[in-house]
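User: Can you recover a sequence for this backbone? Please restate the input before giving your answer.

Assistant: Of course. Working from this structure:
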């Protein structure tokens, strides 16, 4: 069962969760997420399913080892949800109607607010892993929600940078990024009145895209009704452009970055969605090898401007 183990070299938690080795891999007989499986309702529109192999769980289990002053051990308290997007096993988020995606956004937001109210939870991560090359074990269209008992290291880095920028300039860092991307224009992919999508100047993956609200918004809780409504079509647009790029259902990791729920104040942080697709070409993948994994430095063998132009050129019809 899961527990947190402290890495003193990087000063970050690692989740030790050996029970997750037993989770099923692409079952061939009966998908547990399809209606009629006995594990989900006979009919549903969107359904939240508690992960059978959670990374975080409340109440947390007893630790498997005793910690020490150097090697600390802590409770992996929290929650892991699976969000089933649709009962149709063969569809994808890109193929769902805009109206359905709008309802899904409300499901994400409502669950975010619910989990934010639990004292053991400090951060809520909404995400989707799509495609076998990403390591997805269930092909049914779904995403996940992980409720952490701490602020994950990447989010902490973004928070520290955002706070430093605000203290120095009295402006939101990501608001400034949006202004610069819109003014430059070369890396833009799509946009509407509330949102803009672009390949960031510093993209680590060739087809990395960020979807960011034009107006300042720290989290889904503070998102206006219009922002939620406008998020649905731009999300679908980006996903359809991905699928149209090479003519196949595009794999990706989709992460929603928003302010923590640990009781602190983070008015300087700005909600955004990040996509990390593993393809660098139709028949080539971007591998996280020695430099990326061992040193933490990404090497992107393409230019953000070039890849944004490719994505802009993909015609889609909502």
């Amino acid at each position: 069962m899961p527990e947190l183990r402290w890495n003193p070299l990087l000063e970050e938690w690692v989740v030790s969760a050996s029970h997750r080795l037993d989770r099923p891999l692409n079952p061939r007989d009966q998908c547990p997420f399809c209606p009629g499986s006995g594990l989900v309702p006979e009919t549903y529109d969107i359904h939240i399913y508690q992960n059978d192999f959670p990374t975080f769980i409340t109440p947390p289990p007893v630790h498997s080892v005793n910690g020490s002053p150097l090697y600390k051990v802590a409770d992996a308290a929290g929650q892991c949800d699976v969000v089933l997007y649709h009962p149709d096993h063969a569809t994808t988020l890109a193929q769902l109607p805009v109206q359905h995606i709008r309802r899904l956004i409300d499901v994400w937001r409502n669950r975010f607010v619910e989990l934010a109210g639990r004292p053991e939870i400090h951060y809520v991560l909404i995400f989707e892993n799509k495609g076998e090359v990403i390591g997805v074990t269930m092909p049914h269209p779904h995403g996940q929600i992980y409720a952490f008992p701490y602020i994950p290291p990447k989010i902490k880095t973004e928070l520290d940078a955002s706070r430093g920028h605000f203290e120095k300039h009295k402006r939101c860092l990501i608001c400034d990024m949006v202004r610069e991307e819109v003014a430059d224009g070369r890396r833009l992919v799509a946009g509407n009145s509330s949102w803009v999508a672009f390949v960031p100047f510093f993209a680590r993956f060739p087809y990395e895209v960020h979807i960011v609200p034009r107006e300042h918004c720290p989290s889904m809780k503070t998102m206006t009704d219009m922002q939620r409504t406008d998020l649905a079509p731009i999300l679908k647009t980006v996903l359809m452009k991905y699928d149209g790029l090479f003519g196949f259902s595009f794999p990706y990791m989709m992460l929603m970055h928003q302010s923590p729920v640990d009781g602190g104040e983070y008015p300087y942080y700005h909600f955004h969605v990040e996509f990390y697709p593993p393809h660098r070409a139709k028949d080539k993948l971007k591998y996280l090898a020695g430099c990326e994994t061992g040193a933490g430095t990404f090497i992107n063998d393409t230019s953000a401007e070039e890849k944004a132009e490719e994505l802009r050129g993909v015609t889609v019809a909502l």
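That completes the design. Residues 225-246 form the longest helix (22 residues).
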